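>> Question from a student workshop board

For tomorrow's exercise we were told to take the sequence and the ligand below, predict the bound structure, and bring the output to class. My setup keeps failing. Could a helper post the expected result so I can at least see what it should look like? The ligand is calcium ion.
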Amino acid sequence: MAGNGNGNAMGRNGLPTIQTRPNGICHDDSSAPVKANTIDELHSLQKKKSAPTTPLNGIQGAANFSFFTEEERQQQQLQSISNSLASLTRETGPKVVKGDPAKRTGETPKVSHHHHFTVTPTISVSDSSLKFTHVLYNLSPAELYEQAIKYEEGSFITSSGALATLSGAKTGRSPKDKRVVRDESTEDDLWWGKGSPNIEMDEHTFLVNRERAVDYLNSLDKVFVNDQFLNWDPEHQIKVRIVSARAYHSLFMHNMCIRPTPEELENFGTPDFTIYNAGQFPCNRYTHYMTSSTSIDLNLGRREMVILGTQYAGEMKKGLFSVMHYLMPKRQILSLHSGCNMGKSGDVALFFGLSGTGKTTLSTDHNRYLIGDDEHCWSDNGVSNIEGGCYAKCIDLSREKEPDIWNAIKFGTVLENVVFDEHTREVEFEEKSVTENTRAAYPIEYIPNAKIPCVGPHPKNVILLACDAFGVLPPVSKLNMAQTMYHFISGYTALVAGTVEGVKEPQATFSACYGAAFIMLHPTKYAAMLATKMEKHGATGWLVNTGWSGGSYGLGKRMKLAYTRKIIDAIHSGSLLDATYKKTDVFGLDIPTEVEGVPSEILDPVNTWPDKKAYKETLLKLAGLFKKNFDVFTSHKIGKDSKLTEEILAAGPVF
Ligand SMILES: Nc1ncnc2c1ncn2[C@@H]1O[C@H](COP(=O)(O)OP(=O)(O)O)[C@@H](O)[C@H]1O
Ligand SMILES: C=C(OP(=O)(O)O)C(=O)O
Ligand SMILES: [Ca+2]
Ligand SMILES: [Mn+2]
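>> Workshop helper replied:
Here is what the output should look like for this input. Compare the format with yours to find the bug.
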């Protein structure tokens, strides 16, 4: 039967005929007209005002009795932000106003600053006191996307909806530029001197850099402010404020910190810790202590961090991690540079390891609940994630090998320094032309089996990951307590120097507690806490080599991720605990003779090396490096009695 089904009369060529009204005017649309007379009116219909974040307080009939009206609360919030942004040398803080300066709404801005407008202009008043600082406060990912795309060069939406950005000249952390204020209180508490990551600076220099950052931020049209939380353990949660100049940084921290609910935000009050990220602006090399254009400065007394001269976003998350490494042990809580997940039966595993060893990859496991990929606390209540998001490496990412991370790269995710097709916007994950350290930062709930809230019971397994590019460490070893401590304090990994042309030799790195760059106290303090907790809760230690097999870098190959996953599965299930073990030479490690799903011959690395002599030489070389590194710890006592210390010293390689 002919006809198009919607009752329109058909014209000769099969198209519906256009109806002509009696007045001769032609109407080609049948839908109702919009309820607007002008374009401006039409646009005003598009956006609905967000519900106020303070629906109950101060409103009649609310059960809660409240001290403040909504107006007063808003005023206090602006005042708190103005206080954060205040110069310490001028009388008045900036006049803070919420909203994008590009949008002129015609509304009278709610202004807040230290004193009132009636300051008599004197020569001590600078131009900065005449201008407003526009604050973009806890924007949503969609708003931050728009800001980034409009105003930040190098921002693009990829085909899967992620926000691709560039971090500028710095595409990784700058540990040599991380400084900590040394004063009376930190003098005795912190780890200083040889091996310590804490490069000292004085309070005055900190204030010089702080002033530089604050002036820079106030000179901009607008700044981003994030008020968020750290630590999923409600008893030990920390309120953090991040002041930054880029939408990219605001979105990154939105993803990486714990996101407050509207109610929590309403009661946020004064932050416990504030970051001033002025990363586009360099530090001044005429300033005392400055050795480059970059400085990341921590002042524990003021509870502030200043970032100058680097836009690498990881600096913020790892900077806050350092702060937690100070604050948590003060409360007898152990802070851990580890990933963490939990099985269906509630068995928790920790994954320690330096950058690139597999914390993120192996804690993101489709068969287990993800608690977190990088930073945790272990208290008497169990474990808790410090963060609200994950920061995965993207180099050579494949959908097949890491499906959950692949699928998390969607709207809301920040993709740093990746390369994509200019037309399709498909990301080329194998491309290293900007950097090898390409990254994705996404909220933890983008992983389907994330455990929210991100807390769990006491760990059953403590897995130490080493990416051994020498290829001599076994794929898996079971450790006794002394060995666990020995390897935890050593914090070994060896990566290939990839960036330097022609370098074939793997570079051994020893980083105490698998995170020397972030710890604030002496490593033995954390080690002693770990030993106590593992003993108390009966956790088993494991050493897993996620690096080379069949020879060193250049000759052998990286361990297949599928095999490492099988090994990890066997640890989780408990089956590896019951395996048959044999002891290795030199390192004295207990290695299983069989692991389900893994070829048995690879379990003892000597079998995989065609050249046995080269194997032995390499093994001894690595043992020598371990011994040399541990020398600095031999004079330290670990824990209350010296028994553990002696056992730990004896748990190293013997040759
Ligand atoms: N056998 C393996 N085990 C773990 N990771 C592996 C393995 N082989 C290759 N990889 C790759 O190594 C990288 C590990 O990095 P990641 O998990 O981000 O480390 P971390 O979180 O500890 O910094 C990932 O890119 C992963 O794909
Ligand atoms: C963010 C970092 O952590 P990781 O490499 O351990 O994921 C980093 O080291 O810069
Ligand atoms: Ca936010
Ligand atoms: Mn990681």
